[in-house]
Amino acid sequence: MLVLGRTVLPPLLLVTGLLSLMVGWEFVFLLPIVLALAWSIISRVWGKIGYGVVGDYGFISRGFIGTDTTVFPLFKVQRIDIRQTPGQRRKGLAQLTIHLASHTLKIPYVCESDCKNFRDLALYYVESSDRAWY
Q1: 62, 11, 63, 65: which is closest to 35 by C-alpha?
Q2: Which of 6, 70, 77, 17 minimizes the C-alpha distance to 42?
Q3: Is 63 left (phi over 0), alpha (psi -120 to 50) or beta?
Q4: Could you tell me if 96 and 107 are in contact, meaning their C-beta atoms sit under 8 angstroms apart?
Q5: Confidence (pTM)
Q6: pLDDT tens digits for 40-84?
Q7: Would you kindly state where each structural domain of the chain is located, as residue ranges?
């Protein structure tokens, strides 16, 4: 609901307000329909986001219609960034960014303690593993 209220609602109010002033007041009735559509899209995407660790491997899944799951060995993590906006800090959330050799994975709005646990676990596997990178 927070994402919908802060990122989607202001532009929708601006567009429907301008259209209702310039074209006709009937555009005000489009606002609930567009909000319902935006809510369904955001909840669908949010429901597909997941992350976790199983054994020596971490995984991140995301998607809209299907699910794209990326599985990676934890000893191959090159860098992990934990970033917080002031709003996320107040709510105890953060954005987790995992840098691998091939690409970067980002997970928004993760519990800050989960981010730190993931970072510490990956650091443990990087430092304690003697396996080759290739």
Answers
A1: 11
A2: 6
A3: left
A4: yes
A5: 0.69
A6: 777 777 777 888 889 889 998 888 888 888 899 999 999 999 999
A7: 2-45, 50-128
Within 8 A by CB and 6+ apart from 62, the residues are 45, 48, 49, 50, 68
CA angle at 40 for the pair 42 and 1, rounded to the nearest 5°: 55
Exposure string of 63-74, with b = 16+ CB inside 10 Å and e = fewer, is eeeeeeeeebbb
- DSSP annotation of 53 reads E
**Fold of the 50-128 domain:** PH-domain like (2.30.29)
Q: Which two tokens stand for residue 102?
A: 């091939």
Predicted confidence (pLDDT) per residue in 102-116, tens digit: 889 888 888 999 999
Q: Buried b vs exposed e over 21-42: b needs ≥16 C-beta within 10 Å?
A: eeeeeebeeebeeebeebeeee
